[in-house]
Every structure is written in C-alpha cells, then in structure tokens.
Amino acid sequence: MRLKELRKQRGISQLKLAMDLNMNQNSISRYETGEREADYNTLILFADYFNVSIDYLLGRTDNPKISR
C-alpha cells in the first residue's frame, strides 16, 4: 500500500493523519509496514483523504486520478 509514500509526499506525520481520521498512530504505523491490512471502509477513508483512487492506494495502478 502507498500510504506511507502519500503521507510523506504531503509532509504529514503519522500522528496528524491518525488524528485527522480519528484513528491512533499505532494503527497507521501498522498499515504502513504491512503488519495490518486495511478493511474496505479504512481504504475509502485513506483514498478520500489523499484524493486518490483505491487502486492507486493499493498499487494496482500508477494513475492516482479517480475516474468517475
């Protein structure tokens, strides 16, 4: 998952991301390291927060645009 990459590109700390999404920093860390997998609702939260598609977030495409 590209979570860490997106977070760092935007200069956001794990703590800020966690606070913005009403999560804890430990969960963000585990998602970034692959220790924990995000469920569907969490993937939507991350994709909406970074304004990218879920496919981009998961590394299934290199196009971050959301097609509608």
- Beta fraction of the residues? under 5%
Number of strands: 0
The first-to-last residue Cα distance is 22 Å
Let me know the average pLDDT. Answer: 95
The oligomeric status of these chains comes to single chain
Tell me the series of helices and strands, N- to C-terminal: HHHHH
Output the radius of gyration. 11 Å
The biggest beta sheet, please? none
Give the proportion of residues in helices: 55-70%
C-alpha geometry: globular
Q: Structural class, judged by helices and strands?
A: mainly alpha
Contiguous low-pLDDT stretches (5 residues minimum) are: none
Walkthrough of the structure:
- The chain is an all-alpha fold.
- The protein has 5 helices and no strands.
- The two termini are 22 Å apart.
- The mean pLDDT is 95.
Record the SSE blueprint.
Layout: H1 3-9, H2 14-20, H3 25-33, H4 40-50, H5 54-57
Helix pairs in contact: 2-3
